[in-house]
Amino acid sequence: MNIAVFSSHEGSDLQAIMDACRSGAVNARVCCVISNNRDSHALERARKCAVPAYHFSARVIEDPTELETAILNTLIENRTDIIFLAGYLKKLGSCILSHFQDRVFNIHPSLLPKYGGKGMYGIHVHTAVVQAGEQETGITVHRVNAEYDDGQIIAQQRVPVLPDDTPECLAARVLTAEHKFLVDTLGVIIDEMKRHGRMV
Ligand code: GRF
């Protein structure tokens, strides 16, 4: 099973996936990494692990159809079975979504549908959670559709919000929990897809 991972910045989730594939905790391999940010740590991490790494951005390929076609061709050339968005801040185009129907997943650092949607990423999510006085937040892995953070929820994990939490310390707690949750959930997705030919 070949996983293409998309990541825009730090890539710590990507690292967790690559480590899990390498150790055998997840029965798959990362076949390529795609980023819209040429300076992302994600691309650097991929290269360090000898995983093909690609930068695709509207700044380089201005025409949206051409950009999407270039990404789709790269996914196909690398024999992608499933796509995992791990901190990717761009939407995928409809051609990619229909080619990989039901095989595109995203991880989001909140209990969706709460604190999702346009503009809800990174520290913005955790700031909103702290400002709302929530006592718990969490992590969601879901299928990707044409809207931000909107597809079918596959799995969620709760994470407590402590009374003195700042958005930064909450973000760190969620991200630490995310790495294990991501690997566990990906393992279930891969096993189920191998068993049924798809995720049911
Ligand atoms: C994670 O919190 C993930 O849930 C969200 O983006 C963040 C990515 O972190 N979609 P990193 O770049 O993998 O460190």
Walk me through this protein's architecture:
This protein has 200 residues and is an alpha/beta fold. Helices cover 40% and strands 20% of the residues. The protein contains 6 helices and 7 strands. The protein has helices at 12-23, 41-48, 64-77, 94-99, 123-131, 167-196, and strands spanning 2-6, 29-35, 53-55, 82-85, 104-108, 136-143, 153-160. Strands 3-2-1-4-5-6-7 form a 7-stranded mixed beta sheet, with helices on one face. Strand 4 (82-85), helix 4 (94-99) and strand 5 (104-108) form a beta-alpha-beta unit. The radius of gyration is 16 Å and the shape is globular. The model has no long low-confidence stretch (mean pLDDT 96). It binds 5-O-phosphono-beta-D-ribofuranosylamine. Residues 7, 9-14, 86-87, 107-109, 175, 178 line the site of 5-O-phosphono-beta-D-ribofuranosylamine. 5-O-phosphono-beta-D-ribofuranosylamine (GRF) is lined by residues 7, 9-14, 86-87, 107-109, 175, 178.
